[in-house]
Amino acid sequence: DIQMTQSPSSLSASVGDRVTINCRASQTVTNYLNWYQQHPGKAPKLLIYAASTLHSGVPSRFSGSGSGTDFTLTITNLQPEDFATYYCQQSYRAPRSFGQGTKLEIK
Amino acid sequence: EVQLVESGGGMVRPGGSLRLSCAASGFTFDDYGMAWVRQVPGRGLEWVAGIHWNGGSTGDADSVKGRFTISRDNVKNLLYLQMNGLRVEDTALYYCARVDYYDFLGGGRFYYMVVWGKGTTVAVS
Hints:
The complex is a heterodimer. By secondary structure, chain A is mostly beta strands. Chain A contains no helices and ten strands. Chain A is globular. The termini of chain A are far apart. Helix content of chain B is 0%, strand content 57%. In chain B, strands 2, 4, 5, 6, 9, 10 and 11 form a seven-stranded mixed beta sheet that branches. A four-stranded antiparallel beta sheet of chain B has the order 1-3-8-7, with no helix packed on it. By secondary structure, chain B is an all-beta fold. Chain B starts with a strand and ends with a strand. The interface between A and B is medium-sized, with 26 and 28 residues.
């Protein structure tokens, strides 16, 4: 199975900041990589698929990049509603594993 | 309204069984693959199992292989997860999710999950 590893596990930032979250796959997933956002007590919400394609309705301050084994989620101009936990997921090969999550907290 | 509603969770002893159900509405159920994803409280998401529109498996997590079986009834618009040989570490909130996809020109079908239920809780102790 493909293992997904995110870094950092948590980070603190302020409203208006720019942050990056990293995701590494244990083998290539080409660009079959999704990013989700989850607020406490809520189901996950899709942000990005195919590594860099923004899902409909997702603000343009979110962006994704990378291919192969290394990927990045970037959030610019952080807004209060962006403080949440973020997960990457590979859809290259079954089972479609998730990273362990990155918790973004308010500084 | 597109909706997924899970049921069937509860408390069970180690070694016991449960069957989770997920009722789909507001969309053509057999147009989509489906999946179960679980989350231990305060922990991350874990892919459990997936199923194609026609019932073919899209792969189970190693942690549940041989114990859990995903299935679907396209007439009743229901997704199931039969869980046998339950362990304490299976305790989690179990989400049902619809698997959408996008076909890029030039190749590549990209799967992702947009529609999620609220989850049903399984406690093994």
